[in-house]
Amino acid sequence: MKERVRNVIVISDTHFGCQLALCPPSVALDNGGTYQPSVLQKKLWGLWQYFWGEWVPQVTKGEPYIIVHNGDAIDGKHHDSVTQITQNITDQVEIAIAVLRPIVKAKKCAGYYHIRGTEAHVGKSGQAEEGLAKALGAIPDEIGNCARWELWMKLNGSLIHFSHHIGTTNAAAYESTAVYKEMIEAYVDAARWHKQPPDVVVRSHRHRAFETRIPTAKGYGISLVTPGFQLKTPFTHRLALGRSSMPQIGGVLIRHGNEDSIFTRSQVWNIDRPKEVVI
Questions:
Q1: 155-to-4, 5, 6, 66, 260 alpha-carbon distances in Å
Q2: 97 and 37 in contact (C-beta within 8 Å)?
Q3: Would you state the pLDDT for residue 2?
Q4: Coil, helix or strand for 28?
Q5: More reliable by pLDDT, 272 or 1
Q6: pLDDT, mean of residues 84-92
Q7: 218: nearest Cα among 178, 183, 188, 263
Q8: Which residues 6+ apart lie within 8 Å of 33 measured at CB?
C-alpha cells in the first residue's frame, strides 16, 4: 500500500551560477576550467546539507514528501551584472542539476514540481527552467510543460497555490502588505467564480521569509514568502530594506496534520554581519 504524502518542502531562489549563491564544492566549466566556492558559499553549502540531511527528515518525521522549487533556480545573465561564476547558461543549468538531482532522487522524495521564476534570470518564458525541470524529471502540467508559472496542489483536500512573484517593499513595516493582499485577492477571485479558495498561498522572489494568517472555517488561511539561498548582491545594497539587513537562507515545510488541518514551518538562517571595525 502506497504511503500517503502529507508533506511539501518548498525551496526557491537558489540562483545557481552566481558567485553569491549556493554552489557545490567544485564546479567544472565549459572549455575545461573550474570554479572553487568562496568562504561564504561554503557556509551556504553547509546549510544546504544540514537542511536536507537533518531538518527535512526531522520535520517530515521520516515520511515521504513532495519538493517544490518555487522559481529562480539559476542566476542567468541579468541587468548587466558581472557577479556570475559564468554567464554560460548551459554551465549554470549543469550546476543546478548537480545540486538538485540528489535531493530529487532521494528515497523519501515522492515527486518534484518546478515553478518558473523571473525572466531576467531564467530566460524569456522561463525557458532555462523548463530545460532544467525536464532534466530533473519534474512532474509535467496538463500540456506537458515540466516547469510552470503556477501550481494548484491538493494536499489531502487542502488547496495550495504556488507562484514565484510577489510585490516588494523598501520598508520593513510594510512587509506584510503584499503577502496579505495575495491571500485576499485569491479569496475574492475564488468567490467570484465559485471556486475553492486556497488554504495556503506560497510566493518567493523577495528572498525574505514572511508569513501571515487569518482564521477561517478550516482553521487558518496562510500566505507566506519563502527565504532563498543567495547572499546579498549589488542590487540588494541599493535598497533601503536590504542595506542594513542580512540574507535570509532556508526553506519551508507545508504539512497536512492529523486533525485535517494544514500548517507551515520555516527554517531560516541569518548570515552574520561583516566584522565590525573597532577604532
A1: 10, 8, 6, 10, 10
A2: no
A3: 64
A4: strand
A5: 272
A6: 96
A7: 263
A8: none
Per-residue exposure over 109-141, b if at least 16 CB sit within 10 Å of its own CB, e if not: bbbbbbbbbbeebbbeebebbbbbbebbebeee
Comparing C-alpha atoms, which of 63, 13, 8 is closest to residue 164?
13
Euclidean distance between CA atoms 267 and 55, whole angstroms:
8
At 62 the pLDDT is 96
> In the sheet where 150-155 sits, what is the strand order?
150-155, 158-163, 200-203, 219-225, 210-216
Task: Look at residue 151 and give its three-state secondary structure.
Answer: strand
Domains and CATH numbers, the chain: 7-270 (3.60.21.10)
Which residues on adjacent β-strands are paired with residue 213? 222
User: Which of helix, strand or coil describes residue 10?
Assistant: strand
Summarize the confidence of residues 74-102 as an average pLDDT: 95
Parallel/antiparallel/unpaired status of strands 248-256 and 262-270:
antiparallel
At position 85, the amino acid (one-letter code) is I
Nearby residues of 180 by Cβ (< 8 Å), 6 or more positions away: 212, 223
Q: Is the dihedral of CA 95, 96, 97, 100 positive or negative?
A: positive
Complete DSSP assignment for 92-148: HHHHHHHHHHHHHTSTTEEEEEEE---HHHH-GGGHHHHHHHHHHTPPP-TTS-SEE
Question: Which residue, 40, 34, 47, is CA-closest to 21?
Answer: 40
| Integer angstrom CA distances of residue 151 from 109, 140, 168, 203 | 18, 11, 21, 11
Q: Give all strands (DSSP E) within the chain, no chain letters.
A: 7-11, 27-28, 34-35, 65-69, 109-115, 147-148, 150-155, 158-163, 200-203, 210-216, 219-225, 248-256, 262-270
